[in-house]
Design a protein that fits this description.
Length: 149
């Protein structure tokens, strides 16, 4: 593949690293004190309670609502782990799949908010592109360690 300035694999690494920075920003901009005190789950509970799909309300009530503190930590530190993993290129395919799953959860939860839809769809598309194009081939710990060839 012929490209300007970088190879195709290097451009995919740029895309992967950019996605990692996006996830890192998702983690960084959270008010951790409020988030871990239940603010994030309370906010999501309000959205789930008014959701147009009953399955979302039931799923939230069954899995998230009984565990607000662990779920708050899970969401925040999943975003941090995704960001760091994608930037470093460590366990990249796993991080990309986890990113798609997390974006789809956000997408379903925020189905009524078109601004959120765009961000989550774009991040999921970048994750899928990075996964199927094997974006860990350049500038990654996976590549240096010979993982996922």
């Amino acid at each position: 593949m012929q490209t300007i300035w970088l190879s195709g694999a290097e451009w995919l690494a740029v895309l992967r690293i950019g996605l990692g920075l996006w996830w890192l920003e998702s983690w960084r901009h959270k008010d951790k004190k409020t988030w871990f005190a239940g603010g994030g789950i309370t906010w999501a509970a309000g959205i789930a309670a008014d959701h147009r799909w009953p399955v979302v309300r039931r799923g939230f009530d069954r899995f998230v609502k009984p565990r607000p503190r662990p779920m708050a930590y899970l969401v925040a530190y999943a975003e941090l782990a995704l960001g760091l993993g994608l930037i470093a290129g460590f366990l990249t395919p796993i991080a990309l799949v986890a990113g798609v799953v997390l974006n789809l959860v956000y997408l379903v939860l925020m189905i009524h908010d078109w601004a959120e839809q765009g961000q989550n769809l774009m991040m999921a598309l970048i994750s899928l592109t990075g996964l199927f194009a094997m974006s860990w081939q350049s500038w990654s710990l996976d590549g240096a360690l010979g993982l996922f060839r």
